[in-house]
Design goal:
Distance between the termini: 55 Å
Structural class: alpha+beta
GO molecular function: DNA-(apurinic or apyrimidinic site) endonuclease activity; double-stranded DNA 3'-5' DNA exonuclease activity; metal ion binding; phosphoric diester hydrolase activity
Keywords: DNA damage, DNA repair, Hydrolase, Magnesium, Manganese, Metal-binding
Enzyme class: hydrolase
Cofactor: Mg(2+); Mn(2+)
Oligomer: single chain
Organism: Brassica campestris
Helix content: 10-25%
Number of strands: 16
CATH topology: Deoxyribonuclease I, Chain A
CATH class: Alpha Beta
Length: about 350
Amino acid sequence: MKRFFKPIEKDGSSAPKKPCLSPEDGVEEGKNQKEPTKFVTWNANSFLLRVKNDWSELSKFVSDFDPDVIAIQEVRMPAAGGKGKPKNYGELSDDTKALREEKQILMRALSTPPFGNYRVWWSLAESKYAGTALLVKKCFKPHKVYFNLDKLASKHEPDGRVILAEFETFRLLNTYSPNNGWKEEENAFQRRRKWDKRIVEFLSQTSDKPLIWCGDLNVSHEEIDVSHPDFFATAKLNGYVPPNNEDCGQPGFTPSERARFGTIMKEGRLVDAYRYLHKEPDMESGFSWSGNPIGKYRGKRMRIDYFLVSEQLKDRIVSCKMHGRGIELEGFYGSDHCPVSLELSKPSSYTEENQVSN
């Protein structure tokens, strides 16, 4: 039986804290004393629903793992700004009574342990769709936070799909990559091709510093990354078959997407942290997304949530783990995605400084 989040009683400590709301133009900070080494990425499939239904279990997971950074995708909360008003894509909407109540529920939850230890940045869509959030422990201060692939101060990507944090020795990119869809349409194949092209451009322009790229990347690179390769390779929507064979199959597992993903990794000199450590199939815990337990997708699973790191960071990978198990969505905390974690060893300051400066 699901447990609903119980709002904190109103007192002096329960009010939403201003530091949890991100300024539109990012945040400037001084030098860090140290840098994050433990990370979690998770597609929440509606952060508000997770707060209402699964917060106790999720809070325990975060307390136990104690990540320095939490990257969230599919926040599904609208950006501030009502009809006829400018949108503030870095702030939750409170333009109606219902939205004010939902914002209050969410921000109260984020003020409770262990989440009160984190500062939160948002990048949101105009409606309850997509959106990302980045939670960073307050003791780790990014030099700058952007919300687009162009590193422009005030711009947010459409649908709030990007948060980019600059730390002293690396960048952290949190993305909710667009789904490929099933057809040759503007919001399907064409949108994904444009996204992949922009990612390549971003990587070529930011090679001066190591990168940790995490999030729901909406692609399974190899056959080992899906539970039923034949099922996904031949999947159709209402019998429709795309004219190009390279675009056939389950979104996220078409030959064209997988080939482009391989190109992105090669040109960006990126290492798949999970696959770097786990070479063999794992039918129990080797996937981050699971199909509906009822229907033809029962037991069908994909690994589409990643940590990709620059090659110069690969020797620091201590662990990378999927925290969900089996086909009953154990460890998914109400979502259809499970959290994925990455832990790096602490850097050798001499080595890291030379890698960044060279």
